[in-house]
Amino acid sequence: MLAIQKAFRRIHTSLDAPRLTRFTLQAPKNVEVEYANGSKFNLTAEFLRIHSPAVDGKVRSVGGEKVIIGRRHVGIMSAEPVGNYGVRMIFDDLHKTGIYTWDYFYHLGSNKFTLMRNYIKTLKKHGLSRDPPRRK
């Protein structure tokens, strides 16, 4: 599944997404991006965190599927520019290795509802939760 997602990302980012016209970090909860074709997307911190383009040690393999759990309340601490093609997002769970390109933001925004629905279905299928584990 992960190989398919990576291949899709490569294919998608090789296509020409519209030019980014505005990037707004509304820390800690979301990012808003606008494109020259009029598309405007509001992407939550949780959504961006679970769809991080980086390989992450906090990914859990369940039934052969890679799943990031317990990130409902994650926040974005900052976004650092990377060249002129994207940003590195730094989350309050200390994840900071993902570089989000403008094309990848467009892909996420264009497919937001399907991606989130599939994520929630995967969690339910394995009895997992978007909420962080309770501390004892």
TrEMBL record:
Keywords tagged on the record: Iron, Metal-binding
Name of a matching Pfam family: GBBH-like_N
Keyword Metal-binding: yes
Organism the protein comes from: Salix brachista
Gene Ontology MF terms: metal ion binding
Stretches assigned to the Gamma-butyrobetaine hydroxylase-like N-terminal domain: 27-106
Entry keyword Glycosyltransferase: no
InterPro entries: GBBH-like_N, GBBH-like_N_sf
Taxonomic lineage: Eukaryota, Viridiplantae, Streptophyta, Embryophyta, Tracheophyta
PANTHER family: OS02G0197800 PROTEIN
Coiled coil: none
Protein name: Gamma-butyrobetaine hydroxylase-like N-terminal domain-containing protein
